[in-house]
């Protein structure tokens, strides 16, 4: 199950990988927090069930969180992947899916959490940027790290060029690790994520 808010390039990569039966994972549904995002079209074109749960359609955040939890639970996913889902989920959602709700973030955590990872990495002057796949917890981008990949920051980079370079590596990582988690047992030991095999 994949949650999105935007273009859905990560979703598209997962769908492409999942077309191979040996991959080990399928996308059972795609949810979004806003209608009209391109990722929903990608899902529909692939024949995947979709739903939209807008925060603004609910009286408060807790009600939205409960509705999102219910919508996701209907598809009984083993893993829930936030691929550019720009909302923080709440306690209800984490009670149901905590430990198997994963997010991909476009920075090398714990540096540059939040929604402007590439911009802040560029402004800070780091020479390596990248992406982090992690298990979502109550914090903002603070969960246990599953995998990280690095890309160089070039002297002539703009926020756009760096963001795009990160996205390319991020997609490969997300596809690789989602498949590995579907095919192999894994566990969390303290802050360490361990995959057996
Ligand atoms: C990813 O780079 C993710 O790290 C960031 O938003 C991007 C999602 O892109 N939070 P897409 O919607 O999968 O194309």
UniProtKB/TrEMBL annotation:
Keyword annotations from UniProtKB, A to Z: Purine biosynthesis, Transferase
Pathway assigned to this chain's UniProt record: Purine metabolism; IMP biosynthesis via de novo pathway; N(2)-formyl-N(1)-(5-phospho-D-ribosyl)glycinamide from N(1)-(5-phospho-D-ribosyl)glycinamide (10-formyl THF route): step 1/1
Catalytic activity line of the entry: N(1)-(5-phospho-beta-D-ribosyl)glycinamide + (6R)-10-formyltetrahydrofolate = N(2)-formyl-N(1)-(5-phospho-beta-D-ribosyl)glycinamide + (6S)-5,6,7,8-tetrahydrofolate + H(+)
Pfam families the record matches: Formyl_trans_N (PF00551)
Entries under SUPFAM superfamilies matching the protein: Formyltransferase
Any one of the GO CC terms: cytosol
Domain Formyl transferase N-terminal: start-end pairs: 2-176
InterPro entries: Formyl_transf_N, Formyl_transf_N_sf, GART, GART_AS
GO biological process assignments: 'de novo' IMP biosynthetic process
One annotated GO molecular function: phosphoribosylglycinamide formyltransferase activity
CDD domains assigned to the protein according to its UniProt record, in alphabetical order: FMT_core_GART
Superkingdom in the source lineage: Bacteria
PROSITE patterns: GART (PS00373)
Record-listed E.C. numbers: 2.1.2.2
Family in the record: Belongs to the GART family.
Protein name: Phosphoribosylglycinamide formyltransferase
Organism from which the protein derives: Occultella aeris
């Amino acid at each position: 199950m994949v949650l999105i808010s935007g273009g859905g390039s990560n979703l598209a990569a997962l769908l492409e990988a999942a077309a191979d039966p040996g991959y080990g994972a399928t996308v059972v549904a795609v949810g979004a927090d806003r209608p009209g995002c391109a990722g929903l079209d990608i899902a529909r074109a692939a024949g995947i069930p979709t739903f939209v749960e807008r925060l603004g359609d609910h009286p408060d955040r807790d009600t939205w969180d409960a509705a999102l939890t219910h919508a996701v639970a209907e598809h009984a996913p083993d893993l829930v992947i936030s691929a550019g889902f720009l909302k923080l989920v709440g306690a209800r959602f984490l009670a149901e899916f905590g430990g198997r709700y994963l997010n991909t973030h476009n920075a090398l955590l714990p540096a540059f959490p939040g929604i402007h990872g590439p911009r802040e990495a560029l402004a800070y002057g780091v020479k390596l940027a990248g992406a982090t796949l992690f298990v979502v917890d109550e914090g903002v981008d603070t969960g246990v790290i599953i995998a990280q990949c690095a890309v160089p920051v070039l002297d002539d980079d703009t926020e756009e060029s760096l963001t795009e370079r990160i996205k390319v590596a991020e997609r490969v990582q997300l596809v690789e690790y989602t498949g590995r988690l579907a095919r192999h047992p894994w566990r969390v030991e303290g802050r360490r994520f361990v995959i057996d095999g």
